[in-house]
Amino acid sequence: MTDQAVVDAQNLRNPPRRSIPSRLRAASLTVAALWILAAGTAYTQIPTPAPTPENASAAADAQREATQPLNNAPVWREVRSGAPQVTTVVGRETNVLVQSRGETWRALRVPIAFWGGMMVALGVLGLALFYLIRGPLDIGKAEKRGGRMIERFTPMDRYAHWLLAIAWVTLAITGLILSLGKLVLLPLIGYTLFSWLAILAKNLHNFVGPVLIVAVPLLFIRFVRDNGIGIEDVKWFMNIVGYFKGHEYPSGKFNAGEKLVFWVVLLILSTILVVSGLVLVFPNFDQTRSTMQTANVVHMAAAYIAISLALVHIYLGTIGMVDAYRAMRYGYVDESWAKHHHAYWYADVAAGRAREHFAAPKGEPAAAAAARTRPA
Hints:
By secondary structure, this protein is mainly alpha-helical. The chain is built from 17 helices and two strands. The protein has a two-stranded antiparallel ribbon. Helix 15 (335-341) crosses helix 16. The longest helix is centred in the first third of the chain and has 34 residues, at 101-134.
């Protein structure tokens, strides 16, 4: 074995120790690099001070130039001011480099999404618990079905309702995916599946949304004459506990809860959603960034409130009340159902004062006809 091979073997068994100065030098370089990185990060997070007479005057600029020649705070202060500058690009706000209001918009979206999502989640949970405890609402055992039938909704009424219902539910689900999916769904289904779901939700939301331009006015025209507000509606709300105990306060064709959904969810909130949604879907109408940001915040807040209120209506119209879905599906209700849930309306039908009347549902499907004789 050569002398060099012996030395190499000894080095492998006993590697030479680094001297203390070299270790100190490496540690010093590491600490310095971390300090520079932290200082740079902290610097980028410090906002530019607002212009004041002390820091924006000509004397302050001259002093800063002498003592801090590389300080460009005045430049960024002017950029962040939002004041229009000069540019050759044609368009609204193209001469505004930085819009500081965007920071406010991004910060405001977080609490709206969080509390709105909590409101919807608590609504779903509350209705689920109510269903498990109370079950579906139904007429009393002493009241028999199998009597005469009343045509509660005409075909045109049902077409208008289902057009809005399908579009509205589609928009509600896709809107929740777009606003909460990144927080709720992404950790569960992963990036690949969530990306496909988000793209599908976005396209459905954008293309189904304009349907409300027709659906909302159509349903309003069809149902507004039966949704007048009076003192009896106040009494209905004062006796709302009886509604859930089987002792419902008398009402017309629609009770006060249904009228609340009609005026608040359909007329007010859905109109706000349509207008703000059009601003967001069609940015080519030359609206400014601040207009888009305001529309986004208003759209989110209105959507969460509308969804929370509509949950109760959807629940009672499907699994929460016996025969409520059948009324909108086929158009007919049993007279015992009408007398129990809408006593004033039933009295008007029986006296011939209402537009609706007792009728033999000739076009009623066999499944609906069989349900007429179902016991309470």
